[in-house]
């Protein structure tokens, strides 16, 4: 079928880089799927796998913020929490995502 058997499914997308925009539905769908699957925490996973998950999480945040025109949307609550967990090594970055999570909770779940 023309595919290189030595390349994984994620590597095929590199052939199409630049053909669709960053916010295209197809790009978002892939990022959402990757984010929904969660980080690969297997013993043989690499830092590259975690970096891919981090990039997917950031793209989901960018796309949903752009779609809704607001960074404080209830659909972002779990995404912000995941991103805060990923920022354990950077307290300022973690604080930023926890603050965004807090803003979502205050606006949409005030009790």
Describe the structure.
With 111 residues, the chain is mostly helical. It has one domain. The chain contains five helices and no strands. Helix 2 crosses helix 3, helix 3 runs antiparallel to helix 4 and helix 4 runs antiparallel to helix 5. The protein starts with 8 loop residues before the first helix and ends with a helix. 14% of the residues are buried. About 5% of the residues have low confidence. This is KIF-binding protein.
In short:
By secondary structure, the chain is mostly helical. It has helices at residues 9-12, 25-37, 47-68, 77-86, 91-108. It is globular.
Question: How do the strands and helices of this protein lay out in sequence?
Answer:
Layout lengths: L8 H4 L12 H13 L9 H22 L8 H10 L4 H18 L3
Labels describing this entry:
111 residues, single chain, mainly alpha, 0% strand
Relative strand content: under 5%
Provide the domain count: 1
Q: What is the CA-CA span between the terminal residues?
A: 56 Å
Assign an overall shape.
globular
Give the number of DSSP strands: 0
Q: How do the helices and strands follow one another from N- to C-terminus?
A: HHHHH
Radius of gyration: 16 Å
Helicity range = 55-70%
Secondary structure class reads mainly alpha
Weakly predicted, low-confidence segments:
7-12
* Biggest sheet features: none
Alpha plus pi helix count: 5
Kindly state the mean pLDDT as a whole number? Answer: 86
